[in-house]
Specification:
Length: 686
């Protein structure tokens, strides 16, 4: 048995492998978390170097009360260690992020003839891009800002990952050493060639033009190469703008596709030349992302064949180019079958687009859809490199677990039954007794995702509710036509969804979807609560913290968006009803606030404060914007004296018909006035 007293022993030739030692410490912690502190002897676990075992593979066998883990390299040992933890102790890949509960036992039996030999992974380089990591970024575990990142990288290694982009922008530089120390390959954001500091961070007073400052750009590239010497690195080469946008957005000299492609091609080769002068065996990759994809497809970009071509999905799991603003060409984003060279993908389990994506909650498209798209990737032999946008990990654990299963064993239908996968996932974290109830709820998730467009992947996440509501509120406030309200101009930033010329038409298009979504998520929530009522207390707590809060985030978000639509509609009548519009805006504010408070109520234990920096979907900002809208509507309907609505609803304020004096009560705040109106509307009629 593995018990509290089990000893883990290293072959002397492994003493210098810091990543293996960190994995051993994690296994020791797992033993403490799962084993009672008894005097029962435990079998030894021994790590043995075996150079004939394939790279990243391991063999585990039991003999003479000893469990040996044999491997030929660092990652092989790490994967073997976590295999022991999962197989015998029941510590699963997302034990930390899914708040797995452990019941300590005296020991865990290991069959005396146990033997397991791992196979090479279906994907060569595979890992997570910790991107839009706004929840992790401001959160600490026991006062440590580094510990959350350590738990990200541990989960990745438990999933069989071997590379990472360790954060966005400055975070990637801060946590690069930790990721490398834990055994991971380092690769880079497509806006940071070679992992270099962005030009405008280094030289904020200069124009970010390679033509004007080639020496300074190359200085940054050389510094990045020297800084990462000695690490396992997949060097990303390319050239984009300062941030996640094309460089020609800031350099009007590059006004044709030919000029843009020529510069990108030239700089890729220059970066490779610089890199090979340091390491002639360096492995390079380059992102065909967004506008770069279009240039490549048109034949304007030339990339050496020994560079790994990284193709990207559109943020919703479909292997086509992403929508940018109103531009959505959906260029196919996979190599031709039989294409030369090496190919991989950048794929989103989480996405942020200020339009319709899901960053706070699970991918809105189904596991079946994900599996199908990744099967297409495999058919095109794009399995040299998979980097998955994992964002803040916790909300996306289910899809990340699925993708890890695919990068391990491949996409063959016989290898992966999705129903069985879902049931096993729920069994792992919710317990066998709850797995049936919970797995059915997980299967329902994509069916409630709002369909906003004609394509199969046009399903909305929480940003459709949050950004949609705020864009339309802004359109009302900034474009409002007091002379002819119905002709108020459309919100320019919402034309990607509704290209109508007037705001009222855009609102009507949007309302159809959010009304159905609010009703659907209410139904989904009721099903969740019904299932929860049949579970034990431990299962209930996990269901609340892993799934129900996400359903509620959507429910309150879409409910708030629906009330915003109603408020705007009432404001754009030929004779605007500003009072009713004010009331609807208040209902929206209440929904958004309830959603925020509910989300924060699901921060337990080490996850205290986890949701504080919800700043990209930002349901809290939707609440603030709704409050501002209430003020705007009150100005139009009750200003400049602000007494008519109050006299109508406040007892003793003079009544709405007899106005002998202007006021006899102090002015109410918007909140006080709204509450009074709400109480009046909720009062039973007589």
């Amino acid at each position: 048995m593995i018990t509290f007293n089990t000893q883990i022993k290293l072959n002397s030739r492994l003493e210098d492998l810091s990543a293996v030692k960190m994995a051993i410490e994690a296994l020791k912690r797992d033993i403490v978390n799962t084993c009672q502190n008894t005097t029962t002897p435990g079998m030894d676990i021994i790590l043995e170097l075996a150079l004939d075992i394939k790279e990243e593979c391991f063999i585990i066998k039991a003999k003479d009360n000893t469990l040996s883990i044999a491997a030929s390299d660092e990652l092989g040992f790490i994967y073997g260690i976590y295999h022991v933890s999962k197989t015998f102790l029941g510590v699963h890949e997302f034990w930390f992020w899914n708040e797995q509960k452990f019941t300590k036992k005296e020991g865990y039996e290991v069959p005396s003839d146990y033997y397991y030999a791992s196979r090479p992974f279906a994907v060569r380089f595979r890992g997570w891009f910790v991107n839009d990591e706004v929840l992790i970024d401001g959160w600490q575990i026991e006062g440590s800002r580094q510990k959350p990142w350590e738990m990200v990288f541990e989960a990745l290694l438990r999933c069989g990952g071997n590379m990472t982009i360790p954060g966005t922008d400055e975070n990637a530089h801060i946590y690069c050493d930790l990721a490398s120390k834990m055994g991971l390959w380092i690769t880079h954001h497509h806006a940071e060639p070679l992992g270099a500091q962005m030009f405008l961070r280094a030289y904020p007073d200069l124009e970010a033009s390679y033509d004007k400052h080639p020496d300074l750009f190359e200085k940054l590239w050389i510094e990045a190469i020297e800084r990462q010497k000695g690490k396992k690195v997949l060097w990303n080469v390319g050239f984009r703008g300062q941030g996640d946008r094309p460089f020609w957005a800031d350099d009007p000299a590059y006004d044709t596709d030919e000029k843009r492609g020529k510069l990108i091609s030239k700089l890729i080769r220059r970066q490779i030349d610089l890199l090979k002068s340091y390491d002639k065996n360096a492995i390079c990759c380059s992102n065909l992302y967004g506008e770069t994809m279009e240039l490549y497809k048109k034949g304007f970009i030339d990339i050496p064949e020994d560079v790994i071509f990284i193709w990207a999905d559109n943020g919703f799991g479909k292997m086509v180019s992403r929508r940018q603003g109103n531009h959505n060409p959906r260029v196919p984003a996979l190599p031709e079958v039989g294409a030369k060279g090496r190919h991989g993908i950048y794929y989103h389990a989480s996405f942020y687009d200020l339009q319709a994506a899901a960053q706070m909650t699970m991918l809105p498209n189904s596991p079946e859809f994900v599996k199908s798209e990744l099967a297409r990737v495999a058919e095109c032999k794009a399995t040299d490199y998979w980097i998955i946008n994992c964002s803040n990990v916790k909300p996306h654990a289910y899809i990340l677990a699925l993708i890890a299963r695919l990068w391990e064993k491949g996409t063959d239908g016989d290898e992966l039954n999705l129903d069985e996968f879902c049931t096993q996932y729920c069994c792992d974290y919710f317990g066998r007794e709850n797995a049936g109830l919970v797995s059915e709820l997980y299967r329902l998730w994509p069916s409630y995702s709002p369909k906003y467009g004609p394509n199969e992947d046009d399903r909305a996440g929480e940003q459709f509710a949050q950004h949609g509501a705020r864009v339309l509120m802004t359109g009302l406030v900034t474009n409002y036509n007091g002379d002819d309200p119905a002709s108020t101009r459309a919100a320019a930033q919402w034309r990607w969804f509704s290209g109508k010329d007037s705001l009222i038409e855009q609102v009507q298009d949007y309302k159809k979807i959010v009304e159905s979504a609010a009703s659907g998520y209410r139904e989904y929530l009721e099903k969740c609560l019904d299932a929860e009522s049949k579970m034990d207390s431990q299962g209930k707590e996990l269901l609340e913290d892993l799934l129900i809060w996400q359903v509620q985030y959507h429910y309150y978000g879409y409910l708030g968006a629906l009330h915003i639509c109603k408020a705007i509609e009432k404001s754009l009548l030929p004779q605007p009803n500003f009072l009713d519009a004010f009331y609807e805006a208040g209902l929206a504010a209440k929904a958004f606030r309830d959603g925020y408070d509910n989300m924060r109520s699901h921060e337990n234990g080490v996850f205290e404060g986890f949701f504080d920096n919800d700043c990209e979907a930002d349901i809290r900002q939707s609440y603030y914007a709704s409050k501002s809208l209430m003020g705007f509507l009150r100005f139009h309907g009750d200003g400049p004296h602000f007494y008519e609505w109050q006299r109508r609803f406040q007892q003793g304020a003079g009544g709405e018909k007899v106005h002998l004096i202007l006021r006899i009560r102090k002015h109410l705040t918007d909140d006080e006035l709204w509450k009074m109106i709400h109480e009046h509307k909720e009062r039973p009629s007589t």
